[in-house]
C-alpha cells in the first residue's frame, strides 16, 4: 500500500518539480533601463533627447572634411599620408575605401538613429511639453539626414523609426528626391510644434528649423519655397549680425564670448570640461576639428598647438579685399603672427598640393583654455552651424535666383558687406547672383559650406582641382556599407 | 506493473527462506600482499543481503542458503564469486584489478563502468594527483590526459590555468565546464585543495551532451574524496617544504656590450654617441639578478576519513603558503581550505549526503604580464643604471614606458582576499526497487575583497608609472550561484539479463548572481599603505570615483539519457537535452541537444573471444550536438547604457541623458558544437598493455563574434554604442589521440608502469559571415594587430611580414622591390629583407601573410613510475610540438638594453643573415615579422619524485600505519629553442594568444615532503 502511495507521491513531486516553468529564465538586467521599459515618463523623453543632441558633436567631421574637399584649404597634417583619407579627399582621389568618409556616414547615421528612437516612441505616453521634444527630435533627424544626403546622395530612410538588424539588406537607398521630401516633412512638423524661443541655450528653436528648411529648399533650387521660411527667420527679429550693437566686436565673433550670440540661429555646443581619447573621437565633448586645425608645435600667445590640418590656401587668402575685416577674422597668417608676437611653430606636411600654406583656419583655432586631456581633442569652441549672416545670404540667393525680389536680396547682401567693413553695392540679376556666391565664400570660409555650395550651383568642377562631375558631386558609399548590404545598395556612379 | 514486480520479488525471497541455510565465517585478503582487506562487500547473489569485512578482513554471514553464490566485491579489485555448496574454506583472496575495467566512471547525472563507456573519457586518479601534488588541480591534467592542454596564465603565485580540451573551438570562452561533485563550479580550480580530489574525469566528446548548452568546450568532472564504510578513522598528514627559483634568466648585454652597441646604433644613424668614453663605465647592474629571488613554499594538509556500517565521513583541512620568485614580499599566495563531507543511509531506500568546502585565498601581486611589468622593465632597463636610482632623471633616456623595476616593486601595494563556500546537499531515494530519484542542491558563494594603493611617486620625468598624487582603490564583489538537480534513474534488466537498460530523466535549474561595488579616493594620509582606506583618505574632486555592477544569469534544462547494453557487448546510449537560458534571445529561446553514442565489445563475441594477447577490445563511436552559452548576458536586449552627454544651458554645463548602448541582437543564440568521435579501447598481453585510440572531428558553428562590423545605420558609432554580437563563424578541430599504458609487476619487489599519450590538433576557421577576418592581440606599441581569425587559417594565426634574410649590400637593396612604404624610408644594407608576397613590385603592409600560429600540432605526455622495495619513483613530462610564439618583451626604443643575440648583428656584408643592423634611424626592422616569431616547441620534465616508505615494523611501535618521505622537483627542465623565459607564455586569448610580453616564468621548485597515515 505504502509503496503505491509513495510512488504516486514521488511521481507527483518529480513531475511538478520537473515542470518548473520556462519563465524561470525570463530575466531582466537588474537595475538597468532597457528599451522595452523606456519612454514611460516625461523624464525618459528628455533624457533621450539629450542622447539625440550628443551626436551633433561628432559632426565636426562634416565641417573639417567639407573644407578640405573644397578649394578653400589643404589637408595639411604631419605628412602627406597623415590621415590618409583626408589627404585623398583633398586631392579628389578618394575611393570607397576611406575610413574618414566612413566616419561621416557612421556618425551622422548615429544621430539619425538616436532621433528616430524618440520619434518611434512618440505615442507611448502623453505629457506636457511632449510636442516640443518630438519637434526637436524631428529637427535633429532632419539635420543629420540633410548632412547625409549632401554627402552621399541617395540614402536608406525609415521615417517610422530606427533601422532593425537585417534591414541593411532589404531597405533600399531612397532617391535624393524622396530623402528631401522626408527631411522637409520632419522640418515642417518640427516648425509647427516648436516654441519660438529655444527652451534652453544649446537647443534648437523654431527659427533653427525654419533656417534649415530654407537651406534644404535652396539645395533643391526651390527658391519659391526657400524664400518665405528664410524671411520668417529674418523677420522674427530674434537675430542680428554680431558686432552691430553695443560693445560687440565683429572680430570676436568666433571667440568664446560670442558663443550663442544674437547671430546664432543654431549652434553645436562643445566643452573642454571632460577628457577624451583617440579611441572614441566621437565621444569627445570637445570640438575635435579645432585641435586638428591648430598650428603644429605652436608656442606663443593666444593659441594652443594642434595637428596642423585644414590649411587655407594662398588663393583663399587673396580672395579677400585688403579692407575686408573677414580676412582678419577668418585666416591666421602664421609668419606675420610669429613676426609680431615671437611665437614659434613647426611645419608638417610640405606636399605642394596638400601641405603647408602659411595660413590657418582662425575661426576654429584652439584658443588658450583649461580644457582636459587629451587637449587636442577637447577644445571647447562651439560650431556656429547656422549663422544669421548665412540666413541673410541664403534668403538673398532665394530672392534673387527665384526672381522674387532683387531689392530685398541686395539689402540682405549689403547688411553682410557693411558688417565686414565693405561698402554697399548696387547690382542685380546675375551680377547679384555672382556677388551672393562670392559673399557666401568670404563670409563662410572655414565653416564647411563651400564644397556643397559649389556642387549645388554647378561650379565645383571649375573651382576644385581634380573634381569630376557628376562623379564628385557626392562621395562614395563606404565599401564596408556596400558589403554589409549584400548587394542591396549600389555604389554611387563613377566610384 | 511495478507493484507486480515487487510482489514477485518478495515471493522469490520468501521461497529462499524455506531452503537450507548455514552460517558462514571467513576472511578476505589481497592475493599479492596477503594483507587483510577491510570493507569488502560480501553479498548473496541475487539479493540485497550481505555484509562487509571488518578491520581484520573477517566477515560473518548468517542464514546463507546452501545453494547460494557469494559475491565478493571491492573497489580496485576483481569481483570474485564463490559457490557456497562447493567449498567450506572461505579464506578468500582478491586480485587487484589494476586495469580497473570495472571502475566506475562518472559521466554526469550518473556513472558507468569503464568497460561499458561509449564516449571518449579520460580520468586522472588520486594517485597521479598525489604524485604530481600540483598547486592547482588543473595542472594534474597536463600531460596525463590525451587531448587536454593546460597552460598557466602566469608563473606568479596563485595564477589560474587555462584548460583547453581538443583545441580552441571558439573566439570566445574556450574553457570547459567544471562540475564539482555534481554541481557547476565556476570558481578557479585554485580554490580547491588538490589533495581533496579523488578523481578528475574529462568528457571530451558527445558523451558530454547531457550538459547541453554548457558542454561544448568539454566537461571536467571532479569528485572529491569521501570516507569508506566500515573503516576506522584514518588520519593522514601530508606536508612539504620547497624552494622555488627561476628556470632561466635571459641572456642580456652587460654594461660594456650595451654601451658599445648603443653607440653603434647612434653612429649608424649619424648621431652623437651617448657613451663617448666607455672606459668611464662603472655601474654594471644585472637587473634580472636584482628582481629574481629564491622563494619558499610550504604546504600542510590533514584529513580524517572513515565510516560505520551506514555512514561515512571525511574531514580535511589544508594550508598553502607560496611566495613569488619575483618580489616575494609583494607577490605571494596563501590558501586555506576546509572540507567536510558526510554520507549516510537513513533507510535502505534513502541516502543523504552533504559536502561543504570552504576556501580562503589571500594574495598580493606585482605587475607581471605585459608592457610595464616588473620583468619587462628588468629586461629593458640599461645595465649602466644603479639599482638604487629609483628616479631615472639624469640617467640615459629610456622612454616613458621603462622604469626601475625595483622602484616599481617598492611602490606596489595590494591585497586580494576571497572567501568561498561551496557545497552540495543530496538525497537519493529508491522509491521503488531500481527506481531512484536524486535531488541535489549545489551552491557556490564567494566574496572578493581587493585593495590597491598607488603611492605618490616620481619614477622620472613623464614615466607612465608616475603618480602625482596617491590613490587607494577598493572593491568588493559577491557572487552566488546554485545548481538544483532533480532526476530519476531507472535501471532494469530484461530477457534474462541479456539486456540492461538505464534510463535517466531529469531537470537542472542554474542561477548565478553577482554584485560589486568599486571606489577610489586620493589623499591617503602620509602617502602610506597603512592608512590606505577610502574612509581615511581625504581627497576631493575629480579623482574620487565609484561604480557598481550587478549580474544575473539563469538556465533551465531538461535532460534524458537511455543506455542499452545487450549481451554485455552491444552498447548504445541516446541523450537529449533541452535548455532555455536568460542569455538566449526571444527568437532563439530554446535549444535542443541530441547525441548518440555506441560501443561494441568485440572480445565478448564468441568468434573472437579473449586470449593471452587480446584481453579486451571495444570499438566506440559517438556523434552529438552540444552548445556553448558563455556569452555576455542580455545581448538580445537594448540597454540604455550609451553615452548621452551634451552641453546645455547658460552656464554651458555638461548635461547627461540616456542613450542606447550596444546594438541588441534579438537573434542571438548559443554556439553549436557538432562532435564526432571514433575510438578503440584495447587491453593486451594479460591486461598489462592498455591502448586507447580516438579520432575526433569537432565543428563549432554559430560562433558568437562580438562587435562584428555592422552597418552604421544602426547607430553603432554613437558614443557608448557598439556593433552587436552575432552568430557568424565556424571553426573546425580534428585530430587523433592515442593513450598507451603499460604496467608490469616484475617481482614482489619491483613493479613499474609507463603511460604515454599523444594527440594531434588541426584547427581551421571555415566561416566568418560579414567580415573578411577578425583581428586581435598586440605587438610592440602602435603596430597593427598581429593575430587574425580568417577563413582557411588556424584561429589566431600570426599575420605579419615574411623575412628573407638581410640585405648585404646596396645592390641587393636596389634589386629588391621597394620597402619604402613600410617605414617611410628606403631600406639600407643590414636591414631585414621582406618578401613581396603579393608580387605587386612593392613591399608594404599588404604583403603580410601567415607567419605561424600558437596552436601546437602535436601534444604529448610521458609518465612513468616504478616501485622497488620501499622506494617509489615517478616522473611526469609533456611536450608541445609545432607551436609558434612571438617574442614581444623588447621595448622598441633607442637606449633600452638588448638580448645578447643582438651581438651577432649585421655589421657589413656577410656578417649576418639573421640579425639586422642596429640603428636609431627609422627602419622597418621593428615591424611585426617572422623575425619575432620563434618555434615554441618544448619538452618539459614536469615532476620528478623519489619516495621512501619507512618499513612498517619500525612504525608499529609509534602507532603509525604508513610513513612516506619524498623529495621532488617540479618544472625540472624544459628543453626548447625559445629564447624567452617560458614557451608556455600566453594570455590564452583565442586571437592574440601565444604572444610573450615578458611572462612571469613558472618557478622550478625543489621540495621535501612527508606523508603520514595513522
UniProtKB/TrEMBL annotation, chain B:
Membrane topology field: Multi-pass membrane protein
Matches recorded under PROSITE patterns: TONB_DEPENDENT_REC_3
**Residues of the TonB-dependent receptor-like beta-barrel domain:** 390-875
Spell out the protein name for this chain. Answer: TonB-dependent receptor
Family of the protein in this entry: Belongs to the TonB-dependent receptor family.
Major location, coarse class? membrane
> Is Transmembrane one of the keywords UniProt gives this record?
yes
Q: Which residues form the TonB-dependent receptor plug domain?
A: 114-219
Gene Ontology molecular functions:
siderophore uptake transmembrane transporter activity
Q: Which Gene Ontology biological process is one annotated for this entry? A: siderophore transmembrane transport
Cellular component annotations (GO), alphabetically ordered: cell outer membrane
Gene3D superfamilies from the xrefs? Carboxypeptidase-like, regulatory domain, TonB-dependent receptor, beta-barrel domain, TonB-dependent receptor, plug domain
Q: Where is this chain's protein located in or outside the cell? A: Cell outer membrane
Keyword tags: Cell outer membrane, Membrane, Receptor, Signal, TonB box, Transmembrane, Transmembrane beta strand, Transport
Asked whether the UniProt record includes Signal among its keywords, one would answer: yes
Amino acid at each position: 500500500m505504502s509503496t503505491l502511495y509513495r510512488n504516486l507521491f514521488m511521481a507527483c513531486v518529480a513531475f511538478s518539480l520537473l515542470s518548473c516553468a520556462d519563465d524561470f529564465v525570463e530575466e531582466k538586467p537588474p537595475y538597468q533601463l532597457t528599451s522595452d521599459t523606456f519612454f514611460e515618463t516625461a523624464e525618459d523623453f528628455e533624457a533621450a533627447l539629450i542622447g539625440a543632441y550628443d551626436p551633433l558633436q561628432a559632426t565636426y567631421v562634416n565641417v573639417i572634411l567639407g573644407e578640405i574637399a573644397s578649394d578653400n584649404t589643404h589637408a595639411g597634417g604631419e605628412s602627406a599620408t597623415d590621415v590618409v583619407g583626408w589627404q585623398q579627399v583633398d586631392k579628389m582621389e578618394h575611393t570607397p575605401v576611406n575610413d574618414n568618409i566612413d566616419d561621416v556616414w557612421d556618425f551622422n547615421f548615429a544621430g539619425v538613429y538616436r532621433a528616430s528612437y524618440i520619434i518611434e516612441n512618440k505615442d507611448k505616453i502623453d505629457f506636457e511639453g511632449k510636442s516640443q521634444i518630438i519637434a526637436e527630435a524631428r529637427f535633429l533627424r532632419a539635420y543629420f539626414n540633410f548632412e547625409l544626403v549632401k554627402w552621399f546622395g541617395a540614402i536608406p530612410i525609415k521615417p517610422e523609426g530606427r533601422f532593425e538588424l537585417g534591414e541593411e539588406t532589404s531597405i533600399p537607398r531612397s532617391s535624393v528626391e524622396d530623402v528631401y521630401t522626408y527631411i522637409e516633412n520632419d522640418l515642417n512638423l518640427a516648425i509647427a510644434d516648436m516654441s519660438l524661443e529655444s527652451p534652453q541655450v544649446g537647443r534648437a528653436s523654431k527659427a533653427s528649423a525654419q533656417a534649415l528648411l530654407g537651406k534644404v529648399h535652396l539645395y533643391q533650387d526651390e527658391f519659391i519655397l526657400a524664400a518665405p521660411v528664410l524671411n520668417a527667420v529674418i523677420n522674427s527679429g530674434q537675430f542680428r549680425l554680431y558686432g552691430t550693437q553695443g560693445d560687440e566686436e565683429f572680430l570676436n565673433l568666433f571667440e568664446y564670448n560670442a558663443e550663442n550670440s544674437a547671430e546664432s540661429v543654431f549652434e553645436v555646443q562643445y566643452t573642454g570640461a571632460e577628457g577624451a581619447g583617440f579611441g572614441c573621437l566621437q565621444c569627445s565633448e570637445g570640438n575635435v576639428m579645432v585641435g586638428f586645425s591648430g598650428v603644429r608645435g605652436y608656442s606663443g600667445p593666444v593659441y594652443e598647438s594642434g595637428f596642423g590640418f585644414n590649411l587655407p590656401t594662398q588663393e583663399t587668402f587673396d580672395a579677400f579685399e585688403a579692407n575686408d575685416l573677414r580676412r582678419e577674422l577668418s585666416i591666421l597668417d602664421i609668419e606675420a603672427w610669429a613676426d609680431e608676437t615671437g611665437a614659434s611653430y613647426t611645419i608638417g606636411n610640405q606636399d605642394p598640393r596638400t601641405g603647408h600654406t602659411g595660413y590657418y583656419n582662425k575661426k576654429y583655432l584652439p584658443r588658450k583654455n583649461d580644457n582636459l586631456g587629451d587637449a587636442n581633442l577637447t577644445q571647447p569652441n562651439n560650431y556656429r552651424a547656422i549663422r544669421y549672416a548665412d540666413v541673410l545670404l541664403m534668403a538673398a540667393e532665394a530672392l534673387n535666383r527665384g526672381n522674387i525680389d532683387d531689392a530685398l536680396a541686395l539689402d540682405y547682401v549689403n547688411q553682410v558687406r557693411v558688417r565686414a567693413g565693405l561698402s554697399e553695392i548696387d547690382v542685380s540679376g546675375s551680377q547679384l547672383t555672382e556677388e551672393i556666391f562670392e559673399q557666401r565664400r568670404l563670409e563662410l570660409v572655414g565653416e564647411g559650406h563651400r564644397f556643397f555650395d559649389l556642387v549645388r550651383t554647378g561650379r565645383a568642377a571649375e573651382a576644385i582641382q581634380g573634381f569630376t562631375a557628376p562623379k564628385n558631386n557626392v562621395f562614395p558609399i563606404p565599401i564596408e556599407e556596400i558589403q554589409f548590404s549584400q548587394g542591396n545598395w549600389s555604389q554611387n556612379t563613377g566610384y | 506493473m511495478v507493484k507486480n514486480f515487487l510482489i514477485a520479488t518478495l515471493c522469490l525471497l520468501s521461497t529462499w527462506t524455506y531452503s537450507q541455510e548455514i552460517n558462514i565465517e571467513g576472511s578476505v585478503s589481497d592475493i599479492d600482499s596477503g594483507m587483510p582487506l577491510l570493507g569488502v562487500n560480501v553479498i548473496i547473489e541475487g539479493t540485497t543481503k550481505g555484509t562487509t569485512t571488518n578491520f581484520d578482513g573477517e566477515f560473518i554471514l548468517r542464514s546463507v542458503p546452501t545453494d547460494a553464490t557469494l559475491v565478493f566485491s571491492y573497489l580496485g579489485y576483481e569481483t570474485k564469486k564463490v559457490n557456497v555448496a562447493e567449498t567450506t574454506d572461505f579464506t578468500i583472496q582478491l586480485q587487484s584489478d589494476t586495469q580497473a575495467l570495472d571502475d566506475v566512471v562518472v559521466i554526469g547525472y550518473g556513472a558507468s563502468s569503464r568497460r561499458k563507456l561509449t564516449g571518449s573519457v579520460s580520468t586522472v586518479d588520486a594517485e597521479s594527483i598525489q604524485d604530481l601534488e600540483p598547486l592547482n588541480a588543473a595542472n594534474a591534467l597536463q600531460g596525463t590526459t590525451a587531448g587536454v592542454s593546460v597552460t598557466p596564465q602566469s608563473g606568479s603565485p596563485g595564477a589560474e590555468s587555462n584548460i583547453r580540451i581538443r583545441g580552441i573551438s571558439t573566439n570566445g570562452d574556450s574553457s570547459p565546464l567544471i562540475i564539482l561533485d555534481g554541481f557547476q563550479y565556476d570558481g578557479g580550480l585554485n580554490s580547491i585543495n588538490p589533495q581533496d580530489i579523488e578523481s578528475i574525469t574529462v568528457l571530451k566528446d558527445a558523451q558530454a551532451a547531457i550538459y547541453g548548452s554548457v558542454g561544448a568546450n568539454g566537461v571536467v568532472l571532479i569528485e572529491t574524496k569521501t570516507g569508506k564504510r566500515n573503516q576506522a578513522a584514518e588520519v593522514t598528514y601530508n606536508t612539504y617544504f620547497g624552494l622555488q627559483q627561476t628556470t632561466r634568466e635571459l641572456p642580456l648585454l652587460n654594461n660594456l656590450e650595451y654601451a658599445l652597441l648603443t653607440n653603434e646604433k647612434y653612429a649608424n644613424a649619424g648621431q652623437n654617441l651617448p657613451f663617448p668614453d666607455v672606459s668611464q663605465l662603472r655601474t654594471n647592474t644585472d637587473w634580472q639578478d636584482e628582481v629574481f629571488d629564491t622563494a619558499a613554499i610550504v604546504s600542510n594538509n590533514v584529513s580524517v576519513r572513515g565510516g560505520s556500517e551506514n555512514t561515512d565521513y571525511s574531514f580535511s583541512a589544508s594550508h598553502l603558503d607560496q611566495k613569488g620568485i619575483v618580489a616575494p614580499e609583494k607577490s605571494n599566495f596563501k590558501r586555506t581550505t576546509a572540507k567536510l563531507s558526510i554520507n549516510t543511509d537513513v533507510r535502505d531506500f534513502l541516502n543523504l549526503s552533504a559536502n561543504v568546502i570552504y576556501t580562503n585565498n589571500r594574495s598580493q601581486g606585482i605587475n607581471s604580464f605585459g608592457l610595464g611589468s616588473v620583468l619587462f622593465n628588468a629586461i629593458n632597463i640599461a645595465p649602466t643604471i644603479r639599482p638604487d636610482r629609483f628616479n631615472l632623471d639624469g640617467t640615459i633616456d629610456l622612454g616613458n614606458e621603462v622604469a626601475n623595476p625595483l622602484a616599481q616593486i617598492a611602490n606596489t601595494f595590494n591585497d586580494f582576499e576571497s572567501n568561498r563556500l561551496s557545497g552540495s546537499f543530496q538525497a537519493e531515494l529508491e522509491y521503488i526497487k531500481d527506481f531512484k530519484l536524486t535531488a541535489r542542491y549545489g551552491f557556490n558563494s564567494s566574496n572578493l575583497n581587493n585593495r590597491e594603493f598607488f603611492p605618490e611617486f616620481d619614477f622620472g620625468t613623464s614615466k607612465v608609472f608616475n603618480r602625482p598624487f596617491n590613490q587607494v582603490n577598493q572593491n568588493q564583489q559577491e557572487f552566488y550561484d546554485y545548481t538544483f538537480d532533480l532526476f530519476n534513474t531507472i535501471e532494469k534488466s530484461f530477457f534474462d539479463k541479456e539486456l540492461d537498460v538505464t534510463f535517466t530523466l531529469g531537470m537542472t535549474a542554474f542561477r548565478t548572481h553577482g554584485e560589486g561595488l568599486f571606489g577610489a579616493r586620493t589623499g591617503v594620509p602620509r602617502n602610506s599603505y597603512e592608512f590606505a582606506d577610502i574612509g581615511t583618505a581625504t581627497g576631493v574632486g575629480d579623482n574620487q570615483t565609484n561604480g557598481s555592477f550587478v549580474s544575473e544569469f539563469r538556465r533551465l534544462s531538461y535532460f534524458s539519457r537511455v543506455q542499452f547494453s545487450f549481451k554485455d557487448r552491444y552498447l548504445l546510449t541516446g541523450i537529449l537535452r533541452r535548455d532555455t537560458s536568460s542569455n538566449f534571445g526571444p527568437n532563439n529561446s530554446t535549444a535542443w541537444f541530441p547525441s548518440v553514442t555506441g560501443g561494441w565489445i568485440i572480445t565478448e563475441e564468441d568468434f573472437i573471444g579473449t586470449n593471452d594477447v587480446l584481453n579486451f577490445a571495444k570499438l566506440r563511436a559517438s556523434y552529438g550536438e552540444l552548445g556553448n552559452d558563455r556569452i555576455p548576458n542580455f545581448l538580445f536586449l537594448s540597454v540604455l547604457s550609451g553615452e548621452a552627454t551634451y552641453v546645455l544651458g547658460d552656464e554651458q554645463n555638461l548635461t547627461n541623458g540616456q542613450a542606447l548602448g550596444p546594438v541588441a541582437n534579438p537573434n542571438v543564440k548559443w554556439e553549436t558544437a557538432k562532435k564526432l568521435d571514433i575510438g578503440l579501447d584495447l587491453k593486451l598481453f594479460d591486461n598489462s598493455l592498455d591502448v586507447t585510440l580516438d579520432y575526433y572531428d569537432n565543428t563549432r558553428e554559430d560562433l558568437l563574434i562580438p562587435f562584428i562590423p555592422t552597418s552604421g545605420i544602426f547607430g553603432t558609432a554613437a558614443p557608448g554604442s557598439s556593433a552587436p554580437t552575432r552568430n557568424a563563424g565556424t571553426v573546425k578541430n580534428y585530430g587523433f589521440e592515442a593513450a598507451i599504458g603499460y604496467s608490469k609487476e616484475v617481482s614482489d619487489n619491483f613493479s613499474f608502469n609507463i603511460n604515454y599519450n599523444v594527440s594531434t590538433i588541426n584547427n581551421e576557421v571555415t566561416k566568418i559571415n560579414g567580415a573578411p577576418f577578425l583581428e586581435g592581440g598586440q605587438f610592440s606599441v602602435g603596430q597593427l594587430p598581429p593575430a587574425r581569425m580568417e577563413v582557411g587559417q588556424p584561429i589566431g594565426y600570426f599575420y605579419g611580414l615574411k623575412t628573407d634574410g638581410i640585405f648585404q649590400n646596396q645592390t641587393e637593396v636596389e634589386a629588391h622591390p621597394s620597402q619604402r612604404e613600410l617605414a617611410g624610408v628606403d631600406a639600407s644594407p643590414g636591414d631585414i629583407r621582406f618578401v613581396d608576397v603579393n608580387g605587386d613590385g612593392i613591399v608594404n603592409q599588404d604583403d603580410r601573410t601567415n607567419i605561424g600560429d600558437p596552436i601546437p600540432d602535436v601534444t604529448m605526455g610521458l609518465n612513468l613510475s616504478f616501485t622497488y622495495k620501499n622506494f617509489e619513483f615517478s616522473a611526469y613530462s609533456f611536450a608541445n610540438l609545432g607551436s609558434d610564439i612571438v617574442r614581444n618583451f623588447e621595448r622598441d626604443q633607442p637606449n633600452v638594453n638588448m638580448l645578447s643575440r643582438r651581438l651577432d648583428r649585421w655589421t657589413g656584408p656577410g656578417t649576418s643573415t639573421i640579425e639586422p643592423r642596429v640603428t636609431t634611424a627609422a627602419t622597418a626592422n621593428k615591424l611585426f615579422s617572422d623575425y619575432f616569431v620563434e618555434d615554441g616547441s618544448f619538452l618539459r620534465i614536469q615532476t620528478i619524485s623519489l619516495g621512501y616508505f619507512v618499513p612498517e615494523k619500525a612504525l608499529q611501535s609509534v602507532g603509525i600505519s604508513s610513513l612516506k618521505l619524498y623529495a621532488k622537483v617540479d618544472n625540472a627542465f624544459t628543453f626548447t629553442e625559445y629564447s624567452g623565459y617560458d614557451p608556455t607564455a600566453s594570455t590564452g586569448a583565442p586571437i592574440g594568444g601565444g604572444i610573450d610580453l615578458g611572462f612571469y616564468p613558472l618557478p622550478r621548485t625543489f621540495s621535501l615532503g612527508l606523508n603520514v597515515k595513522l
